[in-house]
Amino acid sequence: MTVEEAGRKGGEARKEELGPEGYAELGRKGGEARKEELGAEGYAELGRKGGEARKEELGPEGYAELGRKGGESVSQDRQHMAEIGREGGHARGASGGGKSGSSTGGKSGSSNGGGGSSHRGGSSAQHAAAGRQSHKNH
């Protein structure tokens, strides 16, 4: 038996011993401890590396499907969607963005302020939170 196989077997036994809620709590505590150990910058780098590895593993189509499923999952949380919508609205109001603002370079009908790009808005923190939420559910 390899070390990897032994670790997997031990993890499965512990999962049965603790049950789904206990095992999830164990993982949450471990993640918090690792975050403290690495600090914010190190934890962000760990997430970037993990995301890159997963993207290579799934390929472009699989990664797009993962994002679509995550977006669907997050969009089910109406309170969360209302909160990020309000935050985005405040940010757009503060930055002067909008349909008729000068940020579109005189092009009318663009609500994204980017002259035709497909950027959907939201802060990087909001996107990170949405990603974390989507991975909890899949």
Overview features:
138 residues; mainly alpha; 75% helix; 0% strand
Report on this model:
The protein has 138 residues and is mostly helical. Helices cover 75% and strands 0% of the residues. It has three helices and no strands. The chain has helices at 3-75, 78-95, 124-136. Residues 100-118 have low confidence and may be disordered.
Radius of gyration, CA atoms, in whole angstroms: 20 Å
- End-to-end distance: 30 Å
The gross shape turns out to be: elongated
- What is the number of strand segments? 0
**Arithmetic mean pLDDT:** 80
Structural class: mainly alpha
Low-confidence stretches are 100-118
Quickly count the helices: 3
Secondary-structure element pattern, one letter each: HHH
For the largest beta-sheet, the strand count, sense and barrel status come to: none
What is the beta-strand fraction? under 5%
Tell me the helix content: over 70%
Question: How is this structure best summarized?
Answer:
The chain has 138 residues and is mainly alpha-helical.
Annotate the secondary structure layout.
Layout: H1 3-75, H2 78-95, H3 124-136
